[in-house]
Design brief:
mainly beta, 7-stranded mixed sheet, about 55% strand
């Protein structure tokens, strides 16, 4: 069983930065993709960014140029650097792990609040 544990959310003013972390605990197959999603109040969960085990990244339009996803394969961890934050970025951010395209795991979510 794999458990994803997130940290790093919080409150920040417009233009500020946060760094989210997610650690996968348990036995994790190396062939996997990790990602961050977010869900704002009253909205559907949406993709923020993905990163494969060999480092290929993909970003949703909303975060391009402002967010950076990275990972540490040795520690089964993924990170999301959030810069130039805007009130529209306020959401619960979720870590996601997909193993061999089959097994899907979610973290419990971490709140990011951007205040103007």
């Amino acid at each position: 069983q794999v458990q994803l544990v997130e940290s790093g959310g919080g409150w920040v003013q417009v233009g500020g930065s946060l760094r989210l972390s997610c650690a996968a605990r348990g036995s994790v197959d190396s062939l996997n993709t990790m990602a961050w999603y977010r869900q704002a109040p009253g909205k559907q969960r949406e993709l923020v960014a993905t990163i494969t085990n060999d480092g290929r990244t993909n970003y949703a339009h909303s975060g391009k140029g402002r967010f950076t996803i990275s990972r540490d394969n040795a520690n089964n961890a993924v990170y999301l650097q959030l810069n130039s934050l805007e009130p529209e970025d306020t959401a619960v951010y979720y870590c996601n792990l997909v193993v061999r395209g089959i097994h899907v795991y979610w973290g419990q979510g971490t709140q990011v609040t951007v205040s103007s």
